[in-house]
Specification:
Length: 182
């Protein structure tokens, strides 16, 4: 059994040529796919928890039902990839390209996406993830004025409502009621 403490693959696929490979329902937990060429491969039903896929190219790859929870997918190319019913909870997808990706039923809850990419996905996002029960549009924050107003987790200064304000002497502002301290 490979991997750290026998609980994952921890396999090294960095810069590997995986074009048109078939790895259905496999465990790639904590594996390294940095800069791997995964074009037109089939990874449907596979688990990638905690894996590294930064700069990987997965053009037209099939990730139907794959679990990408807590995965680093920074600068990944996912053009025309099939992410139907995939779980991308807490994944980091900054500077990744998902143009034309099929995301029906995908769960992006707490995932970090660039705002332009998120807005592009919201134009056609649909479905509900059968594993988590979360609606794809809800997980992306589509149409949520409050969430859009504060940005995304990738913008920490804008990702939460403003902190409670104190006046210049360190006391609560009684006019706005923004502080509970006495």
């Amino acid at each position: 059994m490979r991997g750290e403490f026998g609980i994952g693959s921890a396999a090294q696929y960095g810069s590997a040529d995986l074009k048109k490979a078939v790895h259905v329902n496999e465990n790639f937990r904590r594996a390294n796919f940095t800069s791997a060429d995964m074009r037109e491969s089939d990874f449907s039903g596979s688990t990638f928890n905690g894996a590294y896929l930064e700069k990987a190219v997965a053009y037209k790859a099939n990730f139907t039902g794959a679990d990408f929870s807590d995965t680093l997918m920074d600068r990944m190319v996912l053009n025309d990839a099939n992410l139907t019913n995939a779980v991308l909870v807490r994944s980091v997808l900054t500077r990744s390209d998902l143009a034309g990706a099929i995301i029906e039923g995908a769960d992006f809850s707490d995932a970090v996406l660039d705002l332009p990419q998120k807005l592009a996905l919201c134009k056609y996002a649909s479905g509900t993830n059968p594993i988590t029960g979360v609606n794809t549009r809800v997980s992306l924050g589509c149409g949520n004025k409050r969430r859009n107003a504060y940005g995304s987790p990738s913008s920490p200064l804008l990702s939460a409502p403003p902190q409670k304000m104190l006046d210049r002497d360190g006391f609560c502002d009684s006019e706005t009621g923004l502080c509970d301290a006495k």
